[in-house]
């Protein structure tokens, strides 16, 4: 099976060539951060040489500390795990000759996670990458409170060769109740390459969602450029805030389902936690079913529509299209995942 064998069943998307979409969007990781990288708990050190002078710390770190991507290094810097002469500096710090870089990397690994026979929908696979269509309700990787029943546990069962990789080869994640496409690496070199593609914004990801608002209202916010950070009071939430990280979301199109709700194509330029949900809520167009950033059903609905909106059990968000450059062949690859049944049923309530 090849990427071209995947049929595209949804009509809202345009037929834009993949190369053009890459140029137009510079898409990054979603609604979720990139994976944390390699875990070994070791202390690494490096003394800056004359040839390194003036190079950004994050760039140099990804070169001299083997096995870590630039995204990993930036997180180490922000967390105070990579110090320069014993002090915390910015990722953009220009290194000086003789600077002592000390990296203490203590990251989560999955050496103790157990393989579990959990069914996964594999859209494509080869010796380097796997593309998976994740269902609603499946947590991507183990964490506090959910050490089992995750995609990582499933990967360890179906693909034992990924056990040596950080997070079993994951390079990005989507929320538990978001459906759709994820790419997983099967080798360390492929994982680092894909992480770098995400960092360089050369991965294309298109989502479909159902948002509050008419198309003309939503398209007033076709480009949402607003930094996102951890909510000051509720630490499980994210929020638009001046001190947050840069975040850009593009609303590509909106199609009326009802005078108050629209089916939207949304493309990510950056990849912050909950980015689509936070951004659309921030501009007054939250997603149906979003228990964290959403609102109650609006007036003007039939009883059936009101009940369907109120009872939809998750955010109406689906990672519909995924494009990346194959880390070995250099081929541009594009995949589509049709909307899941619950999403389609919700659309039918509005369109019947």
From TrEMBL:
Keywords: Isomerase, RNA-binding. The active site is at residue 175. The keyword Electron transport does not apply. Residues 55-112 form the RNA-binding S4 domain. InterPro entries: PsdUridine_synth_cat_dom_sf, PsdUridine_synth_RluA-like_CS, PsdUridine_synth_RluC/D, PsdUridine_synth_RsuA/RluA, RluA_PseudoU_synthase, S4_RNA-bd, S4_RNA-bd_sf. Pfam families: PseudoU_synth_2, S4. It is an enzyme of class 5 (isomerase). CDD domains: PseudoU_synth_RluA_like (cd02869). It catalyses: a uridine in RNA = a pseudouridine in RNA; uridine(1911/1915/1917) in 23S rRNA = pseudouridine(1911/1915/1917) in 23S rRNA. NCBIfam families: rluA_subfam. Belongs to the pseudouridine synthase RluA family. This is Pseudouridine synthase.
